[in-house]
Design a protein that fits this description.
This protein is α+β, with helices and mostly antiparallel strands. It has 6 helices and 17 strands.
Length: 270
């Protein structure tokens, strides 16, 4: 089975972004992808943080969620829908929600980004809490034969999240970790690949990281470098910048081999 990370350079126009996502999902399906992931904010890279409120949807309904459902069904694959804004209960903010759809078009899981990004180096300033409400709990989903742990962008810096999704309530370790993201160029250049490969190695699983990658119409530049990484930390496929697909084979034999030869997951003491 094949895993695909779809890289976009999203715009402030939802319709244009959905058309771009449609092209990429169709291409991934044509290449034999079993599971494909869109990047964070695939549907909108707005002019400001609060633009998300303008296109926010109610949970379970809305054109963006309908698009993801129909794409998964028509292409016959598992689709991790990057993220989209779903209205929070307080009405003033939104959740940055990652929704997963099965080949039957049904939603199988929703994960709301737990950790909200803030960064200020004197030249760049970001604070997601202006418009976002954080999520509540880790989520992993059974996507066919694969147990997939869900995370979003800044979550990547918190290794305890990945331990929780694998081992809480007696669950088995994840086969795949998904990290849709919109890393800034500055932080991505420094830490993106380093952190992704670390998460793959310490959890001995595959990582699918679909990113925004390029210069956006709102002036922001994202790092890109969408990747598929194996349980030994080897980068199997990468798209550096611009629209494209990183696709690679998932091998249960390779994962099993790594976990048997170096049984670190079984050596956990805390």
């Amino acid at each position: 089975m094949k895993l695909a990370a779809l890289q976009m350079v999203s715009t402030p126009d939802v319709d244009r972004n959905l058309k771009a996502a449609d092209r990429l999902i169709a291409d991934a399906a044509a290449q034999g992808a079993t599971l494909a992931s869109l990047p964070e904010y695939f549907c909108l890279m707005g002019e400001n943080d609060r633009d998300k409120l303008r296109i926010a949807e109610n949970d379970g309904s809305g054109p963006i969620q309908e698009f993801l459902s129909s794409q998964a069904k028509s292409r016959g694959l598992w689709l991790i829908g990057g993220t989209l804004p779903i209205r929070a209960l307080d009405g003033a903010r939104v959740r940055n929600a990652c929704c997963v759809y099965g080949p039957n078009g049904e939603r199988a899981a929703r994960y709301d980004k737990l950790h909200l990004f803030a960064f200020d180096n004197g030249r760049e300033h970001y604070d997601e809490a202006v418009a976002l409400e954080p999520g509540d709990s880790p989520v992993a989903v059974q996507a066919g034969d694969l147990r997939v742990g869900l995370s979003v962008c800044y979550d990547l810096r918190f290794p305890e999240l990945y331990r929780a999704m694998s081992f809480e309530s007696g669950q088995k370790p994840c086969d795949v970790i998904s990290v849709p993201a919109a890393f800034t160029y500055t932080t991505g250049k420094a830490h993106w690949e380093l952190l992704l490969r670390t998460r793959a190695v310490e959890n001995q699983c595959y990582v699918v990281a679909a990113a925004q990658g390029g210069k956006h119409e709102n002036g922001r530049r994202t790092w890109g470098h969408s990747m598929v990484i194996d349980p030994w930390g080897e980068v199997l496929a990468v798209v550096e910048e611009g629209e494209g697909i990183a696709i690679a084979e998932f091998s249960p034999e390779r994962m099993g081999e790594v976990r048997v030869q170096l049984p670190a997951l079984g050596h956990r003491r805390i």
